[in-house]
Amino acid sequence: MYTGNDMTGQPNDRAGKPAFRRQRRKTGDATEEIGRRIVSGQFHPGSVLPTTDALAAEFSLSRLAIRESMKTLAGKGLISARPRRGTVVRPRAEWNRLDPDVLRWHSHQRPNAAYIRSVFEIRRLIEPPAAALTAERAPQETISAIEAAFQRMAESDPTSPESIDADVAFHSAILSGTGNDFIAAFTPVMAAALSSTFRIQRDVARDREHFIPSHKLILDAIKSGDADATREAYMKLLKTAEDDAITGLQKRGADAAPSAGNTPA
Length: 265
Prior knowledge:
The chain is 64% helix and 3% strand. By secondary structure, it is mainly α. The radius of gyration is 22 Å and the shape is elongated.
């Protein structure tokens, strides 16, 4: 059935969108699914992925599209091509664990205490000092963005996606507000980690009064330009948040005991 061309000359599908967009979306879906299978251990390190033809048939894609997915996954350190063997899953130690997609795929697995503690270790290293810088140098535009995110969080149902999104936006705006491009580059990584832990924390922190005041202390300290107070308020928030996340794991029946080396699964 002829569906016509759009103004760019690309063939349209029945929804009137260029067919290449639909193909790219399907390619992204394949990348997502294969990536999750690798991170979950369904394709364990050292194993060989199905052939390009097999994956193309499974996802109803061209071989070229599957190769594009493989390039994306290779760029994240998850796989590599081996002569005469095929595409092999690389050891976990070689994965780009700071890649936002890899972090997000981790978050969809059954979480444990090691993952939570690793997240909070990196948060303590990066966020309180970054917040102190934001207090010292953030322009009014950044402070307004932090305040707007806080208001959305304060007005949302604590268990709703809107509350979690606003919480992520609050912390992301603080990182971006440092004026340091290297620190700001961590924002997508931290946002992925925050989303996963906030969902667990909300199993415990269902009352706004449990977490809104601690965020308000950070906001007020930033607005006053007090770097020390900002850092102190942030550290207190992280301590409570980590305790909530571990308690949330226990409520879910997950492993909340420390593991050797404190390394995420």
